Amino acid sequence: SLGEEAEQFMVFKIAFLCFYVTCAMMQLYLYCYVGERLTFESTEVADTAYHCEWYNFSPENARLLIIIMCRARSSPLMITAGKFCWFTILLFELPYRFESLHTEVRGHLAGREEMEPIFELPRPGTVPHDAMLRVCSTNHQPTAHRARHESARKILLFLPEQNYIRHFFLLQALKFLLKCIAEDWATTETKTKRETMVKIARLTRIITIGCIMMCELIAFSFVSLRLVSMKYTDATMVYHGYFPYNITYSPNYELTMIGQALGAIYGGTTYGAVDTFIALLVLHACGQLSNLKDDLRNIHSYDKKDQQARLKKIVEKHNYIAWFVLNKSVNSNSVGSENFLNGFER
Asked: Where are its TM segments located (predicted)?
């Protein structure tokens, strides 16, 4: 009957929502994992330098090791989320740790009707049309919130012209980072270092395939959900929109449906490619830090005359890795900011 079909459709929607939330949490865990690994590897450099018995070196050589130890301890490499938090395993555990605190504090806050939404962020391409991320706060100054929201929308009107210029320089910077990765592969000195980089490359390939397949599955599930929902709603297309032609006639209708389905697949691929590319850059930096630790462990195998030159090379390599991560963080935050602003204005 119609009621049973509607009930089955509701179950399908709930299952899709659970699957989407699971995939989103897995992507968050990916960021937290690579961020935790980067912090761990950069901190381990200081411990490795300390266990090299730096106190038995000459003052000039010991000074170089102390520089590495102080730099690795005072400012370890980390991935930031908009410069207000760090991607670590602790960040992934925060929702579970603060769940009880949220339940307790929620009773002291204002009611739901007093919560004023600051902004709503639609997620294009992979979720239902009416699904969005909503950030709310207590409505102490509703007028100020509305004024801030309206002013933000006016400012965002000028962003499209600026995005083309920013994207051009961003792509140039990302191409330069890829050239750096190619140079690191070409300048690998020992078989052990190359094996370490191969392990990192295999892990990156597994993550890339898994993320893209997961995003493609979300896109396919969403398109299927929209097609099934046409029986119970007035929707005639996968995505709501205005077209410069009449879509009610054949083959306009079929071609438009195929185009929207391909757009969903393309959007899922792009959505997963950004995350996996950032993971690739971070894991490559982790591999370089691991090779740097191997150089520190084997520093005693060099003659005293060659130790200083080797240590200088290690310090330069450490500076290079820090520069690589810094450029990766700036470019990644730029990509994330652009995606956020585009979704915010939609």
From this structure: 12-34, 203-223, 261-283
Which one has a higher pLDDT value, 139 or 311?
A: 311
Quote the CA–CA distance of 119 and 155 in Å, as a whole number.
14
Q: How far is CA 8 from CA 15, 219, 232, in A?
A: 11, 20, 12
Q: Is the pLDDT of residue 70 over 60?
A: yes
pTM: 0.69
What tokens were used for 278?
């950032």
Q: What does 291-325 look like in DSSP terms, one character per residue?
A: HHHHHHHTGGGS-HHHHHHHHHHHHHHHHHHHHHH
For residue range 3-48, list pLDDT tens digits in order: 677 777 788 888 888 888 888 888 888 888 888 888 888 888 888 8
Bridge partners, 121 (sequence order): 133
Work out the end-to-end distance of the chain between its first and last CA atoms, rounded to an integer number of angstroms.
38
Q: Note whether 137 and 115 are within 8 A (CB).
A: yes
Record the tokens describing residue 81, joined without a space: 């989320």
